[in-house]
Specification:
Blueprint lengths: L1 H23 L4 E15 L4 E7 L9 E6 L6 E5 L10 E12 L2 E11 L5 E13 L2 E14 L8 E2 L4 E2 L2 H6 L2 E10 L11 E14 L1 H17 L2
Antiparallel strand pairs: 1-2, 1-3, 1-12, 2-5, 3-4, 5-6, 6-7, 7-8, 8-11, 9-10, 11-12
């Protein structure tokens, strides 16, 4: 029995180390969406505003995107082809505030939510900086506490119109943190974020890694589970 218990402990520790190596190798989950419909409501009182970008399928914009699990095992990409919202329940939305302008920069907080074709959800919180430069507008910031929420029926792969990936590994490591590589507004009506605009083509890219706390809990939980089986 001692040998069996040692084996169980080694397996649990090995699983933890394997998942840790996935996390330390780089981004675990990445996402990219383009041709989102961006809109902005400006409040001159306090020089603040509210920005929203959503996936759409209309005459002007045909949104597309992809969400990927990067490392093996289970690596894959869920692809959402142009105009996917007209054919599936999949969606993408990002909401950001605009406040604290200093020169050509301002602060922003908000959330993002990506839904696949089966109703699985990837969502998280955002905080960072708006940058208005050279007639363009960008947002660069950090993602905090991102989680995958499976659909209520069953834990199924995160699935696009083509491609899918197993949510088991990232769910074991969540919450996930990361960075919004860039939110880019293509030639908005104004590049100073001081007037309303709508239907501005917007691109979003981000990447997620496990938080140190989630890794610590995973390791502790794996060892405790093994010891309880002794």
């Amino acid at each position: 029995m001692k040998t069996l218990n040692t084996t169980k402990l080694a397996v649990a520790a090995g699983l933890t180390m394997g998942l840790a190596s996935l996390a330390s190798a780089g981004p675990l989950v990445t996402f990219t969406y383009t041709n989102l419909s961006g809109q902005y409501a400006y409040n001159p009182i306090g020089d603040t505003g509210a920005f929203k970008a959503t996936a759409v399928s209309n005459g002007a914009l045909q949104s597309d995107g992809s969400v990927s699990l990067v490392p093996n095992p289970g690596a894959g990409t869920a692809v959402f082809n142009p105009g996917f919202t007209s054919r599936t329940i999949a969606s993408f939305e990002i909401d950001l505030s605009f406040f604290g302008r200093v020169g050509n920069m301002a602060s922003g907080n908000g959330t993002f939510k990506a839904v696949d074709t089966l109703g699985n959800i990837l969502t998280g919180q955002l905080a960072g900086d708006w940058v208005m430069f050279g007639g363009a507008v960008f947002f660069n910031g950090a993602i905090r506490g991102a989680v995958l929420i499976p659909n209520p029926v069953a834990v199924l792969p995160f699935t696009g119109e083509t491609g899918s990936w197993n949510m088991g590994v990232p769910m074991a490591l969540q919450p996930l943190d990361g960075s919004i590589v860039q939110i880019h507004l293509a030639e908005p009506v104004n590049s100073n974020m001081d007037h309303d605009f709508r239907e501005v083509s917007t691109g979003v890219a981000g990447q997620l890694v496990p938080t140190p706390a989630s890794m610590a809990l995973l390791g502790f939980g794996g060892l405790i589970a093994a010891r309880r089986r002794r």
